[in-house]
């Protein structure tokens, strides 16, 4: 669900005016924010904490106290005099000051910035000392490659519209308290809010927008299926993958890797003769590799889900294309349609109009442009086209949007800019097909698959201690199991 700042403020006012103390909620919000930072930075680091005068600054001081208790080197930055701070913020500063001093910081520690300057009650241009603080945050982030965590809202972002004022903080992570704000879903906000983390507080909200929601572990975890002890490979899902062509054998391998690492019981990848030796040699050993005579000509027996498109190419005879179109329209098994299959589908609007409901289309923006003349905001376009085509649509990007008829638009909150490289979509296609084969609905498979590869990418960067620029699709696939385990574990973000 999404809320406006007014709806969130009214919910808090109703709760706290009833006699409930705000302090336990601040303590819990700050604790969870600190735990989230530690999830992404498990090693000790140094933190520059920028505190405003209100309760957002109080939240930041609770975060600072936890980090320092764990051994982090913490530096506080204030822009107001002590007498201007809220009483609760003053109290949290006193609790921080009561801690024993830590040793000076050391070179080589990761540098984290905490933006606790302004909360939901602020709007308008950034001026004076506040502007100096936001400029310093952005400078540290750019010049020192520090990582910025914004508490609830990045300072200077209009959380209702997603429009940023000049000088607004560009956060790498936004620690969204209680509920995501409506403006976070706007295309313009993506470069300011970054990776969105849910900080759950039990504050009842009467009014909210249920037509859009972010993919958070709290509502994805209940969708996970628990495996029965007597399960065997035939029960765990059979996936058939039609992928690859000369020069694009890697697409077939990555799709198979995604399927095999996400729980499919049996995976068969169908490839043309000219790349069969390569794929048979480099595919995971548990994956079966079969020769194919055409992109839609195979007789696929007992497939619970089919993935088609990665690396198949677009230069095919009319006969082969017609076989593909027939497969996409008439095959009784659910199909994930990706990559070159989408490009070929774009050449046949009549086929697109005939697709049955159990089809998952996974276009990136370029493929989406070939499929339709529609343009506009990501959420609205994804909603409209999913309803118009009657399928599940996974619109890939830095804020992947997923829609199915009758379902809310889901926005993926996980992931990293390091995923902007080839092959990520192939892995995602394999994961989605695997989940569908295991009995998940197409919508749930798209949501889970999108979040899992985003989290797997984060895990790979953390565990390998590499820069985002060095991330590749194989590393993401290899960490899918860890992402699944984290999703199964309460307390993950």
CATH homolog superfamily of the largest domain: Ribokinase
CATH topology of the largest domain: UDP-N-acetylmuramoyl-L-alanine:D-glutamate ligase
Report the mean per-residue pLDDT as an integer: 94
Given helix and strand content, the structural type is: alpha/beta
Runs in which pLDDT lies below 50 for 5 or more consecutive residues are: none
Question: What portion of residues is helical?
Answer: 40-55%
Radius of gyration: 24 Å
Measured by DSSP, the beta-strand proportion falls in 15-25%
According to CATH, what is the class of the largest domain?
A: Alpha Beta
The largest pleated sheet is described as:
10 strands, mixed
Cα distance spanning the termini: 17 Å
Domain count: 2
How does this structure look, described?
By secondary structure, this protein is an alpha/beta fold. The chain has two domains: 2-209, YjeF N-terminal domain (Rossmann fold); 223-488, 3-Layer(aba) Sandwich (UDP-N-acetylmuramoyl-L-alanine:D-glutamate ligase). It contains 18 helices and 18 strands. The chain has a ten-stranded mixed sheet with strand order 9-18-17-16-15-14-13-10-11-12, with helices on both faces. It has a six-stranded parallel sheet with strand order 3-2-4-5-6-8, with helices on both faces. α8 crosses α15 (424-437). The longest helix is centred in the C-terminal third of the chain and has 23 residues, at 442-464. The chain is elongated and about 80 Å long. The model has no long low-confidence stretch (mean pLDDT 94).
List strands and helices in order, with pairings.
Elements: E1 2-3, H1 5-17, H2 23-40, E2 46-51, H3 55-69, E3 73-78, H4 87-97, E4 111-116, H5 128-143, E5 147-151, E6 173-177, E7 180-181, H6 190-193, E8 195-199, E9 212-215, H7 217-220, E10 238-242, H8 249-261, E11 266-271, H9 276-282, E12 288-291, E13 305-308, H10 318-330, E14 335-337, H11 339-346, H12 349-354, E15 359-361, H13 365-371, H14 378-389, E16 392-395, E17 401-403, E18 409-412, H15 424-437, H16 442-464, H17 473-478, H18 480-488
Parallel strand pairs: 1-7, 2-3, 2-4, 4-5, 5-6, 6-8, 9-18, 10-11, 10-13, 11-12, 13-14, 14-15, 15-16
Antiparallel strand pairs: 16-17, 17-18
Helix pairs in contact: 2-3, 3-4, 8-15, 15-16, 16-18
